[in-house]
Structure formats: C-alpha cells, structure tokens
Design brief:
alpha/beta; Aldehyde Dehydrogenase, Chain A, domain 1; Aldehyde Dehydrogenase, Chain A, domain 2; six-stranded mixed sheet; 15 helices; 20 strands; 20% strand; binds NADP nicotinamide-adenine-dinucleotide phosphate
Length: 454
C-alpha cells in the first residue's frame, strides 16, 4: 500500500511519502538500540519528565491534531480532540504510577532475600492501525517507555501525517534520541524488522490477517508479541433493561469513530420480550445522528477512512441481506466521491450471515433476536472473536452472573465498553492475546525476573 494521506471526504491526495530505504531502516534500528541502552537505566522520575511534557504538548495542540485526523482519516473533530485528551491522560497516568506498578515484588521463599523485578526488554516494535491514529500509539507507548523500553513505530500506511506528528511531539517533549521513532514503511517490512536482533518484542493492533503474520514472524524469531485484533462485540438487552437508555448507548456504541472501533458494539442481541420496543427506539436514535463533514463540530458520523473499506462494508451488508437479513435503515452507498456510509440497522441477523460471523468495521448494527437469557448468552459466545461485551439489565447481580459466562476480555454491565488506563484491555479467541493498560499492560514488555539470594 502506498504511504499517503488521502482525504476520505474528497478522495484527494493530501501528501505522499517515500518509504524508508534500507539505509534509513538501519539507522533507525541502530538509534533505537542506543536509545534503549541508555533509557533503561534512567530513573522513573527522569522518564516521567518528558512523559508529562508530552501530555502538556498534546493538550495544547489537540485542535490541530484533531483537524489533521479529520483530513487524513475522516474522524469527526470533536471525537479527535477527545482522543488527543485521552492520550494525555494515559501519559500522565503512567508517569505517575509506573514506579509503583513495577516495584520489586517480595516473595517468601527459602532465600534470605527474594523478589521479582520488572526490567525493560529493549526495543519494542509497534505496528499500529489507522482507526485511532493517536490513541493506539500512546496506549502502547506510555507504559512501554515508562517501563524503560524504546519504541519503533510502524504506523498504518494511510495515516503518515499522524505518525510523523507523534514523532515530533515526542522529540519536542525531550525524549532522548532513539527512544521513540516513527519509521515510514509498508507492512512488507514488518517481518524483517521483527527478525532483526535489535528488536526485542512486537505489539500489533490490527486485523486478524496482520495478527497471524506478525505472530508467525515473532514465533520464528522467538520474540514476545501482544496482539490486539478485531472484535464483534455483543450488546445484550434483557427484558428488565431500561430500553430507552440501552438504545441510546447502543447508538453511541455502534457509531463512535464512524463505527470503526474494535470495541464498538456490533451484534445487538435482544430478547423477544423487548425486541420490538428496542428496535423502534434504536432506529430513531440511529437516524438522528448527523452524518457529514468531519471538520464540522456537530458531525457525529464522518466518512469511512478509505473507500475500499467502505465498499467492503457494503459487501458485508449485501451478503447478509442475500441470506435473509432485513435493512431497517441505511444500507445504501451514497453518491459522490467520499467514503461515506449511512448509519445502518440490519434486522433478523443470525449466525451464518456476514454481519454475525465477521467483524463489521463501520456504522452497521446487526440486531439478533434471542428467545431468552440463555439463548442470548449462547449467541453472544457464538463468535470467533472475544474482545468486549455489554449487558443491559436492571438487576446488577444478574448482570454480573451473566458477565462471568461471556467469552470476552472485558464485559460492561449497563455501560458503554471503553478503554481506560486503569483497566486491562485485550481479547481472547481471534481477538488476540496479551493485555494493554493497567498493571498487566505495563508488565507485558518487561523481563519478569526472579532474584533469589541465599
Ligand atoms: P490492518 O490492515 O491489519 O493494519 C494494522 C497495521 O498492521 C498497519 O500498520 C498495517 O500496515 C500492518 N499490517 C497489515 N498487514 C500486515 C501483515 N501481513 N504483516 C505485518 N503488518 C501488517 O488493520 P487496520 O485496517 O489498520 O485496522 C483495523 C483493524 O484493527 C480492525 O480489525 C480492528 O478491530 C483492529 N483494531 C483492534 C484494536 C484492539 O485493541 N483490539 C484496536 C483498534 C483496531 P499497512 O497499513 O502498511 O498495511
């Protein structure tokens, strides 16, 4: 894929970039190795200083970055600003808590002194997606850098402006040379980077296909990898739920980031008793959200990030309809040069249809009718993915009981599934393995070293 920014509203090329050549890749790897060699011995206070500065710079420049994301991948500006704010939060969170999260953990053994230490691994390669061009990077970088690692970023080929802006922010914040770098390369360069002895580990956020390729390369090189992949999150509405509230949050859960979120709710599993009431309220809400120019502050849903992805999404809708799903709203490709797709609801979705079995990465909601609670749980788990899930019920204890039966990395009862620096984030099944955020996330790229002294 060429490395370029294309405006998804107009189809115009904003900027094209040359991929790094062999010499540039070599220099980046050498700088990363040197950077990591020094950074690992810096104190937590020394690491926290540029981390806090980058948070300050992010906040000060959020309007500019949100505008750049709107132009480069169509994210509505208000959501872009919130994304940049969240990046500042994760930087401050780890600047403040990394030392406590990584402090030596004493163990009672036969030794006179025994403890577990959490030491940096070295250079972490971060292969990142375009959907949250800032958040995905900072979510990985803040804990990895605070743990004493260096990071080499290979961002998605359609968000090079964001990739370069992040590298500049890190430089301006005072991270030493080589501690954080952006390398503009295509996906084909990734296996060779993973294989390089100077790369210690790799983290990928992206599709299943990319996950399989990165995990294979990491397996061949025997290197640690974390995979944050796709999802088809269930949103279960039970008969005792507040249907109006559920329908409103369902709409946000499906349409946030124009539907292009791994933890967007995708399959709305609604029990018979409230199916029709939910459907009519959900339809009203979905139709009420404004689709349009991502630079306009009132826009809720922008274009899809690329036209090819929009066309793929529409093909999933068409295939589902051919197998018996019914279009309640949306479902048609609008005329014009942009990559727009309307807020769409498919009713009567069942296993065996694309909208149920695959990840729909756009504003398409699949509504699935369930007979009762146990049928709803079975449908929720009848997916190859296991990232997030939400459950709607007036009974918290019932919600908790069901949450324990759901195959997913996180379950929210009566709430929107979201990532949070204080909560471990990641999936099971084909949604990947390993965790980001929280204490577990910062320990992923450490050598968990037991020290035993007689
Ligand atoms: P993608 O096509 O897999 O790309 C992600 C990154 O992987 C890009 O940098 C891409 O580079 C690279 N890549 C693609 N194929 C590769 C290969 N065979 N070997 C090595 N690297 C490869 O995914 P996307 O379209 O950018 O992002 C959407 C996907 O990411 C969705 O499935 C979504 O659910 C998932 N996602 C998951 C999470 C999570 O936390 N679980 C969060 C956000 C998104 P190029 O751009 O150069 O091809």
């Amino acid at each position: 894929m060429p490395i370029r920014s294309v405006n998804p509203v107009t189809g115009d090329v904003i900027a094209s970039y040359r991929a790094a050549d062999e010499g540039e890749i070599e220099r980046a790897l050498a700088a990363a190795e040197r950077g990591a060699g020094d950074w690992r011995w810096r104190s937590f206070d020394e690491r926290a200083r540029p981390m806090r500065d980058v948070a300050r710079l992010l906040r000060a420049s959020k309007v500019d970055h949100a505008r750049a994301m709107a132009l480069e991948m169509g994210k509505p500006v208000a959501q872009g600003e919130a994304e940049v704010e969240k990046c500042a939060w994760v930087c401050e969170h780890y600047a403040e808590h990394a030392e406590a999260l990584l402090k030596d953990a004493p163990r009672a053994t036969d030794a006179s002194r025994c403890f577990v230490a959490f030491e940096p691994l070295g250079v972490v390669l971060a292969v990142m997606p375009w959907n949250f061009p800032f958040w995905q990077v900072f979510r990985a970088a803040a804990p990895a850098l605070m743990a004493g690692n260096a990071m080499l970023l290979k961002h998605a080929s359609n968000v090079p402006a964001s990739a370069l802006a992040i590298a500049k922010l890190m430089r301006d914040a005072g991270f030493p040379n080589g501690v954080f770098q952006t390398l503009l390369v295509g996906a084909e360069a990734v296996p060779r980077l993973i294989d390089d002895a100077r790369i210690a580990a790799v983290t990928l956020t992206g599709s299943e296909a990319a996950g399989a390729s990165v995990a294979s390369a990491a397996g061949r090189a025997i290197k640690k990898c974390v995979l944050e992949l796709g999802g088809s999150d269930p949103f279960i509405v039970l008969e005792d739920a507040d249907v109006a509230k559920a329908a409103c949050v369902a709409t946000d859960a499906r349409l946030l980031n124009s539907g292009q979120s791994c933890i967007a709710a995708k399959r709305f599993i609604v029990v018979d008793a409230v199916h029709d009431a939910f459907m009519s309220r959900f339809t009203l809400e979905m139709n009420a959200r404004r689709v349009g120019d991502p630079l306009a502050r009132e826009t809720a849903v922008g274009p899809q990030a690329r036209r090819d992805l929009r066309d793929e999404l529409h093909a999933q809708v068409t295939r589902s309809v051919a197998r018996g799903a019914r279009v309640v709203c949306g479902g048609e490709v609008p005329a014009g040069p942009g990559a727009f797709y309307p807020a769409t609801i498919l009713a009567a979705v069942e296993p065996g249809m694309s909208a149920f079995d695959e990840e729909t990465f756009g504003p398409v909601a699949a509504v699935v009718r369930a007979r009762d609670e146990s049928h709803a749980i079975a449908l929720a788990n009848a997916s190859r993915f296991g990232l997030g899930a939400s459950i709607w019920t007036a009974d918290r204890a019932r919600g908790e009981r069901i949450a324990r039966q759901i195959e997913a990395g996180c379950v929210f009862v009566n709430g929107l599934v979201k990532s949070d620096p204080r909560l471990a984030f990641g999936g099971i099944k084909r949604s990947g393995f390993g965790r980001e955020l929280d204490e577990i996330g910062i320990r992923e790229f450490t050598n968990i070293k037991s020290i035993w002294i007689a």
